[in-house]
Specification:
By secondary structure, the chain is mostly helical. The chain has one domain. The chain is 56% helix and 0% strand. It is built from 18 helices and no strands. The two termini are 39 Å apart. The N terminus and C terminus are likely disordered.
Amino acid sequence: MNASEAINDRATSPGQAGPGRNAAADDMEMLRAAAELTRDISTARPGIYWPDMLLSAAIGYAALAGAILAGSVPLAILCGVVAVLALYRALLFIHELTHLHRNALPGFRLAWNLLVGIPLLTPSLMYENVHTLHHARTRYGTVDDPEYLPLALMKPWSLPLFILIALLAPVAFLIRSGVLVPLGVIVPPLRKLVWERFSALTINPQFRRRPAEGAFARQVFWQELGASVWAVAVLASPLFLGWRPLLIALVIVSGVAVLNQLRTLVAHLWGNEGEPMSVTAQYLDSVNVPPPAPWAGLWAPVGLRYHALHHLLPSVPYHSLAEAHRRLAARFGVESTYARANYPGMVTLIARIARSTMGKPHPETGLGERSLRA
């Protein structure tokens, strides 16, 4: 599906949008321009994807080894920080895999899973056929969206809890792939439970995953097999290598998970209470952090600093989003609907959500004035 088709499929007229405050008419001029201005940059370029992913993974693993082998604490910390940032970038190609046409980059999915997904116990099965539901026009922001919670309308303690959960992710992944998946082979009810509840990178606790079918089911089999074999080897590694390598690796992967959770926290404004939303409303509930924000390329790499723009153009590859943003910003200017999704940085966005959870209305939107939910 090209960018124009994606826009036409997702755009709704005022009469088609759902009820409530998010049923505002779409800005059709913006939606048409987004498709028209990006037709020539909507093809994934192997010469960018492959070197970026391979170099990120190589730097990440080298820095991880450096953190384990370092003879001083400062050097170990420096290597650990580099490992977190590089492995985080390599890991986020899982997002691109969900949007790439199956014939776009031959061999890329297999290579990414072998080099990144399985070693970090997050094979692409954890995101494929799940993340696309988040982009479905009638699902976004509703109870059927696996990646949406009204975080801005919840209690203040929900935000630190949201981050704390990420700290435990590496241990949870080890237990899932190293214990629960193998046991599920001989205990079918457990296998069903693990697939429905613990086999997708989601934040909506109500989401239940449907069974895998066809070619995807075959991908799931070999990815699960690889992840389970690797997880068992990791769990057994202290018997041969001692605890230091495993503990350092767990700390670094926890850092990756926390960084991703912080990015998730500011990827949207999280102000929808389950109503269907127009495409424009979905865009405005999402976030761009364009230049000159100095650090966004580190905490939101692989194009995710343009998350709102990605929701307009989900099929546009990550390496084209900066140019797409430049074209649309030049077309519409600073007083446009397009500009309203642009924010200066993570700190501003976290403060905005924190204000809302405490019931303090934002000066522009009034978000936070409504009753809070537990």
